[in-house]
Specification:
With 712 residues, the protein is an alpha+beta fold. It has 18 helices and 15 strands.
Length: 712
Amino acid sequence: MNIYSLPAVISFTINLSIALIILLDNPKAYINRWFSAFVFVFVAWNLSEVLILNSSNIESALFGAQILYRIIFLTPAFFVAIAYVFPKNFHSYSKRISFFLILFGIPVFFLILSFPNFQIKLLPLSNYSKIYYYRFIYNVDFRFFGLVLISLIYVVWGSIVLYTKIKRLKTIKQKNQAKFFLYGFLTILFLYLLINSFRSSFEPTLSFYSLSTLLTFLISTFFLFAILRYHFLNIKQIVKGGITYSLLSSAVLAVYFLIILGLGKTIAEFFNINSYFFGGVILIILVFLIRPLEIRLQNLIDRFLNRDIIEYRHNFFKFSRQIQNYLPGDVFFEKLQSFIEINFKLKNAFIYVYDTKAKEYRPTKNNKLDLSISQDDDFIKEIFSHGKAIEFYELKYSKSNSELNETFINNKINVVIPLIFENKLLAIIMLSEKKYQKEFTSDDLEALSIFSNEVALAYQRNLMIEGMKEKAKEEFELEKLAALGQLTAGVAHEIRNPLNTISMSAQTLLRKNLQKDQQKELIYYISDEVDRLERTLKDFLKLSKFRNPNIKTVDLDKLLDKVIINIESKGDCSIILKKQIDGNNIQIKTDSDLLFQVLLNLGLNAFEAIKERIKTNNNFNCEDGEIQFNIVRKSRGIIIKVIDNGIGMEDKNKNSVFNPFFTTKEEGTGLGLSIAHGIIESLKGKLEFNSKYGKTEFIIGLPQTAKKQERD
C-alpha cells in the first residue's frame, strides 16, 4: 500500500462505517436498506481507487478502473431510487420491483454493450511509473454517450422528484433533509464534471489526482454532515459518535501508516534487508501503546458529543425533585414552562390545562395565547391518539378551526406534547421554534415524550392532592355547620328550660292570689333560673373568648394536691385518687388558674364516669374506682395524664367529645371539655384522649414555657 491511496482508504473507512450503521440500525426498514446501498456505492468507488493506486501491474489497475467505470454510471440510478424513497415516498409505483428493474436495467444494458471497451484509461502519476490513476476517454462511441445521456436524464429526473416532493413534505425537518440531499448531490456532481471536463488543464497527472481525492473527501463529508446536521434516518447519536471515532481512528491509522512506512524504509536502507518483519513488530507495539489513549479518547468523545444530553439529564433530575412535592397549579406550570424554555432553548412555550367545568383546554396564566380549545376539537383527538411529542406539521387534523390553526402558525408552533395519564389528556404543551435558528431533533422529541410522562404523573398527583384538600375542606365546612347547629340547639335547650320556669312562675304570680310564702317560693324559682341562665352565658362566653393567660412559675405537685382535694370534697363516693410524678420539684411556666380549671374538669368527668360504671355493673363498687394523675417530663415540655377506670366512651361519640354542648349526661351544658380544649390551646399545648370500657385517659401536652397570646 502506497501513501497515495491513504485518502481513499480513509474515505473508504468513513463511508463503510456510515453504510453499516445505517443498515444495522434497522435492517427491515425500506429506507435504511436503500440509503445504505447508496452509500455502499461510494464505498465501492473508494475501494476501486485503492485497487488502482496499489496495483503492481497495469492489468490489476485496469480491473479496478473497470469496476469504477460501472459504479460511476450506476450512481445516478441510485440517486433516482433515493429521490423517491427519501425522506418519504409519495409514489406507490416506486415500491414495485418492476420499477427498479427498469431503472437499473437501462444503464446495465449499455454497460454490457460497452464491455470490455470501457472509455477509461490509466496514466502513471508523475515520477511514479508503477502508480496509476484513471481518466475518461471522450471518443465518438454511442455506447459511452448513451451512458452519459442516461446519467444526465436520471440526474434531472431525480432532481425533479426531490424538488416537487419538497412542496408536499409537511415538516421543516423533512423539507431541509430533501433540500440538502438535492443540493448536495448536485454540487458534488457539478464538481466532478468540472474536474473531468478540464482534465487537460491539469498537468501533471498528480494534480488531477489531488482534485479527485479532494472530491472523494467531499463525498464522505457530505454523508457525514447529512447525518449529523440534518439527522437522516433518525440515527444521529449512534452515527455521531461512531463517525467521529472513525475519523479519529482514520487519522491514527494515517499516523501509523506514515511512521511504519518511514521506519521500514530507514531500516531497509540502513541494514539492506526486507523491512516487513520490523514493520509488523512496530505496528504491534504501537497498537498496545495507543490502546489506553484510544479508550480515554472514546470516553472524551462520548462526553463531548453527548454534553447536551448529560446537561439535560442533570437538570431534569433537579426538576423532578422539585415537582415531587405538591405545588399549586399555577406554580407547577410556571416552573414547567421555565424549565422547558431554558433547557430546550425555546423562544416560547405555551401550556393548556383541561378545565373540567368548561370541558375545554384553557391557557395558563403566563400563557400569551388567549384562545381556548374545546375537548371535542379534532386537534385534541389527534394529539391524544399520538400519545407522544409530535411535530405540528405532521398533524393531519382537520383545519376546520381556522382561528386555532392561524394562531398556531402565527406563534410558530413546532412541537405539540400531550400530558396523558390513564387515558386522560390532562394538559397540552406547545413549543415554538428554537433560538439561534436551531431545529428540533429526533432526540429532542424522544426526550420530550419521556419527560411528558413524568410531568403527567406529577400533575395527576397534584390533582389528587387538590381533590383531597377540596373534599377535606367540604367536610370541614359540613362539620362546622353541624357543630353550629348543635351549638344553636344546645344554647336553645339550655335557655328554654329556665325561661319556661320563669314564665310559668311569673304567670302564676300575676293570675292567682297567693300567700306570701307561695309568692316567695316562686320568686326564689325565678331567681334560681336567672342564676342558671347567667352560668350558661358565662360558660358560653368562656368558650368563645378566653382571658389572656397569666404566665407564672407553677409547681405541678402542689397544683395536683389542690385538684385532688377539690375532687374529694365534691365526691360522695370514696374512690381512690392517686398522683405519680416523674422526678421532684417539676415546675413549668403557665397559667395556674386555667390549668387548675382544666385538671379539675377532667377529674370531675372521670369521677362521673366511675359512678356511671357503678350504676351499670353490680360487681363494680366505689372502692374499685380509681383516678390517677401522672406527670412525665419530656425534652420539649411536660405530659400530664388523667386516667380513670370508669365506663369509657362509645366509639360513635369519640369524634364529638370536644364539640360545644355535646354531652351524654342527664345534667350539664356539654361545654366543659370544649372549654378545656380551648384553654390548653391558649397555653400552646395539646389535649388528646384514648378511651375504651374500663379505661379512659386524657393526655395534656404543655411546653416548658407558655407564651402569652391575644385571643379574639
